[in-house]
Amino acid sequence: MYMISCSNKQEKMLCQAWQVSDVVFMNESQSLVQSDTLQGNMQEVTKTLITDVLKKNIHVFNDDGSYLTGNAVAKTEGKWELEGKSIRFITEKEGKKTDKIIPIEKLINDTLILIMKNDQSSMQMKLILTPLQQ
Questions:
Q1: Buried-most residue among 33, 55, 64, 83 (CB within 10 A)?
Q2: Angle made by CA atoms 93, 76, 112, in degrees to the nearest 5
Q3: Three state DSSP letters for the chain
Q4: CB atoms within 10 A of CB 20
Q5: Which of 121, 104, 113 is nearest to 48 (CA)?
Q6: Check: CATH 3.40.50.720 for 9-131?
Q7: How far is CA 110 from CA 29, 73, 80, 99, in A?
Q8: CB atoms within 10 A of CB 18
Q9: Per-residue pLDDT for the chain (134 aa), expressed as one digit of tens each?
């Protein structure tokens, strides 16, 4: 069951288009990416690559409870719900429903900070999002 979104203050702040403006890595010393004497600091290279990709992403939260996230190469869409200090992303592909819960560190009018825990790599990161400039 999906609730009607953008009905309270938090939901109203979330309902807009956001762009990733910065990425902060949190557990660099525990990540699987290590330095190599022949290849240099692969951890820095990996952080740069991940940051470059993520900074191209937009996240659109609509007031009907739908969302769209992605970039020019790939996108995902589905439904979203606020659950306390987290966003539940609900997608359905080929009849299979999946959901992912992403913690919110901060949500104000001009800043959304999401905590990504080992989603795309062994690195945990904070995505800092700001309203998309049209």
A1: 33
A2: 135
A3: CCCCCCCCHHHHHHCCEEEEEEEEECCHHHCCCCCECCCECHHHHHHHHHHHHHCCCEEEECCCCEEEEECCCCEEEEEEEEECCEEEEEEEECCEEEEEEEEEEEEECCEEEEEECCCCCCCCEEEEEEECCC
A4: 21
A5: 121
A6: no
A7: 31, 26, 20, 26
A8: 22
A9: 344 456 688 999 999 999 999 998 886 665 555 555 555 567 777 788 888 888 999 999 999 999 999 988 889 999 999 998 999 999 998 889 999 999 999 999 999 999 987 555 566 889 999 999 86
Here the tokens at position 51 are 């940051």
The number of residues making up the chain comes to 134
Structure tokens at 88: 């539940």
Query: pTM of this prediction?
Result: 0.81
